[in-house]
Amino acid sequence: xxxxxxxxxxxxxxxxxxxxTAVRATSPQGKFSDAAxxxxxTELTGTDAHGKHLFLGFxxxxxxxxLGLFGKVALGAAPAPPPTDTxxxxxxxxxxxxxxxxxxxxxxxxxxxxxxIHDRLGPDPLRPQDDGNDPRTAYARISRSRxxxxxxxxxxxxxxxxxxxxxxxxxFRHGIDPYRPGRDITPAEWEAVWRDLVxxxxxxxxxxxxxxxxxxxxxxxxxxxxxxxDHGGEVYVYxxxxxxxxxxxxxxxxxxxxxxxxxxxxACQRNETxxxx
Length: 277
Hints:
Layout: H1 4-18, E1 24-26, H2 33-39, E2 46-50, E3 53-58, E4 61-66, E5 72-77, E6 87-92, E7 96-101, E8 105-110, H3 111-120, H4 135-142, H5 149-153, H6 164-173, H7 187-207, H8 219-222, E9 253-257, E10 260-264
Antiparallel strand pairs: 1-6, 2-3, 3-4, 4-8, 5-7, 6-7, 9-10
Helix pairs in contact: 1-7
């Protein structure tokens, strides 16, 4: 499933290609035909993203998109090729086209319905920090929970946009055992984790890929081979089970947690908790 940086990048890409222009909207697959007919010929007035949710604005209406596990977006220059019958929503203007395939959600919603989606999501590291997007609200829930910090980071009601890669990598970067209960994460640790997520995910938007290793740990700096993986990007532990940790040489471990693969270094991420009263 795409992580939050991908969705924010898509919001930028949709805006760059279509904002301020009247679009031709169709649903070759047929599942979005009625809504596409309403949008056809209207102007894309803006885009928005919150966590893994993408919103395309058409006046007072929004197309709400959640890619889920199988959703794909393909953007190209006009003229658009003949669409396949797997395209849920195609937008076209004089210079570009974009095809949406296989999303979990593709629905035309109102402003109040959009607000309700934001209200049920946690703060997003890629949204401006304000009263509605405050990392302290996430920590308030984390600090009261016996659930592991690894599971809490993946709960979109607590933190929006963090997926399996950023979860594994940010915990490694801060030496936090993924099995530590949320209530044992100190305020200082959470503040550092949040700042790091903001920086890493912003870089992910810029580069359209996830890179999490610090400059001193890049292949060039360490004289090691670059990572070869379909996901691309240089990482510390994600999908490196059984391989030596870049920092200490201990074999990276993996385990199943809440139906997702967890990756960590047992030496660099020791299970050290603060004393509790």
